[in-house]
Amino acid sequence: xxxxxxxxxxxxxxxxxxxxxxxxxxxxxxxxxxxxxxxxxxxxxxxxxxxxxxxxxxxxxxxxxxxxxxxxxxxxxxxxxxxxxxxxxxxxxxxxxxxxxxxxxxxxxxxxxxxxxxxxxxxxxxxxxxxxxxxxxxxxxxxxxxxxxxxxxxxxxxxxxxxxxxxxxxxxxxxxxxxxxxxxxxxxxxxxxxxxxxxxxxxxxxxxxxxxxxxxxxxxxxxxxxxxxxxxxxxxxxxxxxxxxxxxxxxxxxxxxxxxxxxxxxxxxxxxxxxxxxxxxxxxxxxxxxxxxxxxxx
Length: 298
Prior knowledge:
Layout: E1 5-16, H1 18-25, H2 27-47, E2 51-56, E3 59-64, H3 67-84, E4 91-104, E5 107-109, H4 111-122, E6 127-130, H5 132-135, H6 140-143, E7 146-152, E8 161-166, H7 190-193, E9 195-199, E10 202-206, E11 213-216, E12 224-225, E13 236-241, E14 244-249, E15 255-259, E16 265-267, E17 271-273, E18 277-282, E19 294-297
Parallel strand pairs: 4-6, 11-12
Antiparallel strand pairs: 1-3, 1-4, 2-3, 4-5, 6-8, 7-8, 9-10, 9-19, 11-13, 13-14, 14-17, 15-16, 15-18, 18-19
Helix pairs in contact: 1-2, 2-3
């Protein structure tokens, strides 16, 4: 019998699109296809010396001694799914977490299991989403295929944490344009991640773990303050989601975002990504003479 508390990689793999398949093909044929997908996910786990903990409908829960093995199994599952099932609308959503796990002969419990289930539900069809615990265990080849994905409150945790997407579709040998290291190594590749804001003589560099970054008039509540009458006390903030910085307005007068060579966007209780180079104008239209104009670059 295994020790009760054991470091494990927990993987949840869930078939996405099965409801539409049942309507399209009928119960019997659709069930046969879904059963084949689930059986393949279980078999792939076993071949790679993982343990199938349980299958729940069209979802497989598995555990592995190694985070690297779990990720390679997840990639193998996605590759087969993309070859054989994409044309009928099926995809796989996969979440992987790593950490101490309470293991019994027939089940597994604990925070790591909960975290894996949580990120699996965040994943969209054909995505593999990983927790920081997995990233900390990966070898360099797999780590190069990981991209910053979002900052979330994982269930039961009051602090936001970064989660990652494993880009299984591309080979790291052929495509380094999306190469991303985990947050502990981000300073080595800082230009790929940081958002730079400039207002007057102030220059501020923001990294994903420093968001949300707030902008407004109340010096005691915001990160970047401006004594501007058209600016609300807590006018807007910058978040990091799905690999992008996003400006979220929650003001009275709204915010203008003007990306270089594009038409300005007016936001009022709305949001927009901050991409490339541009300016943010709080509470009024973009005017180059405005001393409160914020330049951004990502």
